[in-house]
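TICKET: design request
STATUS: open
ATTACHED STRUCTURE:
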């Protein structure tokens, strides 16, 4: 009987420790499925993007800062998908810069108050980039990020990206 009481007493601190660690971790990480915009996930093929949005308004070939080839699809100047080439072309950056109906799987869109971020994804540190506040959430288990740029308390752009 005394062993049972000891187990219960010890299990409570263990539970609280694990719970608080999980809570802290979830403040910076979000499920991988949340790292998408307008139904386009990091890693999507150009064919998939065209099947969802049709032919881009503009398509531009180029190179990234490391000299790797890229193709950028632009839709109406406010939604861009940049593809990188590995074995195949894959979306490495998906970005929206206007309240054009494109949002995250959780429904966060450009133009919303920045306060929705902590309500939807939890608290995360931010930094200032030339007068714009930047908040970034990492996906569990890989290098995918959801990045929000904020000005005057409102979300100005959202980017899903594969990072280093």
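STATUS: resolved
RESOLUTION: sequence designed for all positions
ATTACHED SEQUENCE:
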């Amino acid at each position: 009987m005394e062993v049972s009481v000891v187990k219960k007493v010890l299990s409570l601190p263990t539970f609280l420790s694990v719970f608080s660690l999980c809570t802290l971790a979830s403040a910076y990480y979000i499920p991988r499925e949340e790292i998408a915009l307008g139904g386009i996930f990091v890693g999507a093929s150009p064919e998939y993007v065209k099947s969802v949005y049709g032919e881009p308004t503009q398509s531009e070939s180029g190179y990234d800062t490391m000299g790797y080839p890229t193709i950028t699809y632009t839709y109406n100047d406010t939604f861009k998908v940049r593809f990188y080439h590995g074995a195949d072309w894959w979306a490495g950056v998906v970005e929206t810069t206007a309240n054009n109906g494109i949002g995250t799987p959780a429904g966060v869109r450009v133009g919303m108050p920045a306060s929705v971020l902590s309500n939807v994804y939890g608290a995360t540190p931010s930094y200032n980039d030339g007068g714009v506040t930047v908040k970034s959430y990492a996906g569990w288990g890989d290098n995918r990020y959801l990045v929000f740029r904020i000005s005057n308390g409102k979300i100005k752009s959202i980017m899903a990206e594969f990072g280093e």
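CLOSING REMARK: The first strand starts at residue 29 and ends at 30. Residues 3-27 have pLDDT under 50 and may be disordered.
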